Amino acid sequence: MKFSVGDHIVYPLQGVGIIKCIEERNFQGEPQPYYVIHIAISDMIVKIPIAKAAEMGIRAIVPPSEAQEAIDSISSKYDPLPVDWKTRYQMNVDLLQQGSIASIAQVVQALYHRSKVKELPVQERKLYDGALRLLIDEVSFSLKRPEDEIEKLIFSRLEKK
Questions:
Q1: Would you indicate the residue range of the signal peptide (predicted)?
Q2: Residue 10 and residue 58: Cα distance in Å, rounded?
Q3: Residue 19 three-state SS
Q4: Using one digit for the tens of pLDDT, what is the confidence trace for 58-91?
């Protein structure tokens, strides 16, 4: 998928960004076009070769219906996670690397419920916080609603039995 200047995109594990410009850069003596993307949540600029954008998981923001499905999915029944935290951690990292909003919602749901049973180890807590931030960021943008409102909505769905 090709993007244009001004398009909002999702960069997996980073969040929603906007394409500020497209610039030529030399790589191994060959000029190549790069997206210059500003990730607002971390105030970071990243430069991604256009030819590698899809491979790196750069994608369009999900439509509102898909964002709503992700929110709804976190109140559904979930499969318990393995007891071993290293196994759990790797499973969740793998899910996040998929980059889909559904997989991000799945990580948020699983780690939230796990944290209600037992305090999460530091690395898992960081993973949960990062996944929650990514979910809030994209859903807020997709549904055109404030982040604090989306955060409350997510927690109300997580608390549903």
A1: none
A2: 6
A3: strand
A4: 999 999 999 999 999 998 877 777 778 788 889 9
Residue 43 backbone class (left: φ over 0; alpha: ψ -120 to 50; beta: rest): left
The CATH number assigned to the domain holding 135 equals: 1.20.58.1290
Q: Do both 74 and 127 map to the same domain? A: yes
Residue-number span of the structural domain to which 22 is assigned: 8-60
The DSSP string of 21-77 is EEEEEEETTEEEEEEEEEEGGGTEEEEEEGGGTTTTT-EEPPPHHHHHHHHHHTTS-
Is the four-CA dihedral 120, 115, 76, 80 of positive or negative sign?
A: positive
- The answer, yes or no, to whether residue 117 has pLDDT greater than 90, is no
Q: Is the entire prediction scored with pTM above 0.90? A: no
Q: Please report where in the chains the tokens 């990580």 appear, as a residue.
A: 107
Q: How far apart are CA 136 and CA 132, in angstroms?
A: 6
Q: Which of 34, 37, 49 is nearest to 11 (CA)?
A: 37
